[in-house]
UniProtKB/TrEMBL annotation:
Protein family: Belongs to the NrdR family.
InterPro entries: ATP-cone_dom, RNR_NrdR-like
One Pfam assignment: ATP-cone
Protein's name in the database: Transcriptional repressor NrdR
Amino acid sequence: MQLRELVIVKHDGRRTPFEREKLVRSIRIALRKRPVSEEQIEQIVTGIVRQLEASGETEVTTAQVGELAMDALKEVDSVGYVRFASVYRDFREARDFSEILNLMETHPQHGTEKS
């Protein structure tokens, strides 16, 4: 399957072509001022794109893309992960941050352990 055929299904049901650059921008924003190189950002995005391609699906939801991005960020940088999650999951209260931080403490992965 060619990536250009991939369609993103939005929360409201609209369908739009997948735009790699949008994903790059989102990841870059989450990792702004973090010790993560542009090369690492490209690797993250390439990994997500490969997973989408490997699924064999022609349509994927924004939720699927968001979860893949969160999984990748969790492995690389905990602050970037929380930043992305706060936007993706539409955090509105301090409790929302507390819940994700508690989850990170009980299920640490590379890049998310306390120093």
